[in-house]
Design a protein that fits this description.
This protein is of the alpha+beta class. The protein contains 12 helices and 6 strands.
């Protein structure tokens, strides 16, 4: 007989006797689906609390907190120890515990990895009101696409001290720019923004939802760093637009199948003016000659 969720949880928790454990293991040997369920249950026992404690993470959104509490409340019987309860009903808490534990583990893992609520549009594991509330509160609250929201959260970690003492490695940066163009297939022109008061510090190849994401970091004369982030986007061109997002100023636009976002703390620089200069190609390109020399010598 196929073991139910309550027995699988007891097996994972080491609460079964030898005979029952042997029965579960026999069922696991014959069923890939059951083995996957057990793997998920084991994953849900990971020390997420310790993982959270070791990371600086944004606070859990109030809407998500309320929905998780509602899930837990709905899954918990009113009085599991009532003496008049039918014996079969006493198994209810453990039966409900499987999907609830998996849901809680998924939420925890998703927040740690940043893979669901903020990063994958339209890919919520939840259904019904919870999915609708999350979509309304987390994705549709402004016009920023999920990758821009992720880039903003990342940029918020930067302070001036993060990059003030960084001496740009121009040769390494030129190779990175080449890889962005030749490996990631992003026809990126790295702008030299020195004339706009922004000194180049670094360029990085990142990933978002398994797609290339470029981050170019500049430092103004005063204030926190400015990031220019770029991703492939085949939608039609879109004019420069500015908005405030999570305490940061974001200027975004689309051009020639690339999406751009300039991100900085408010008042750091005239981001719209900088964006228009990049858009019109009225600034020089960094690494162009050095990159060409590298290609010709290789």
């Amino acid at each position: 007989m196929t073991p139910d969720d309550s027995k699988l949880i007891a097996y994972v928790d080491g609460e079964l006797d030898a005979a029952d454990s042997a029965g579960v293991e026999q069922a696991l040997a014959a069923s890939p689906d059951l083995r996957e369920s057990v793997d998920l249950l084991r994953a849900s026992r990971l020390p997420y609390r310790e993982a959270f404690a070791a990371q600086k993470l944004p606070p859990l959104p109030d809407a998500l907190q309320r929905q998780i509490e509602a899930m837990a409340s709905a899954a918990q019987p009113a009085d599991s120890d009532a003496p008049t309860q039918h014996p079969a009903h006493r198994e209810a808490p453990r039966r409900y515990a499987a999907p609830l534990r998996l849901a809680a583990a998924f939420v925890a893992g998703a927040i740690v990895s940043g893979s669901v609520l903020h990063f994958v549009p339209g890919a919520s594991p939840f259904t019904g009101n919870l999915a609708n509330n999350l979509a309304g509160n987390e994705l549709a609250s402004n016009e920023a696409t999920p990758w821009i929201r992720a880039a903003v959260d990342y940029q918020r970690l930067y302070t001036r001290d993060t990059v003030a003492d960084v001496e740009p490695n121009l040769a390494a940066s030129a190779k990175t720019a080449d890889a962005i163009r030749e490996v990631d297939h992003l026809p990126l022109r790295v702008p030299d923004l020195h004339d706009a008061g922004l000194d180049f510090k670094a360029i990085a190849r990142l990933r978002f939802n398994d797609r290339p994401l470029v981050q170019i970091v500049y430092l103004p004369q005063r204030g926190a760093p400015v990031a220019l982030c770029v991703m492939k986007d085949i939608r039609p061109d879109q004019q420069v637009a500015q908005q405030q997002l999570n305490g940061m100023t974001v200027v975004s636009w689309r051009q020639n199948e690339l999406a751009y976002a300039l991100i900085a703390t408010p008042g750091t620089a005239d981001l719209q003016a900088v964006a228009r200069r990049i858009e019109s190609s009225s600034v020089d390109a960094l690494f162009a000659s050095l990159a060409a020399q590298n290609r010709s010598s290789s």
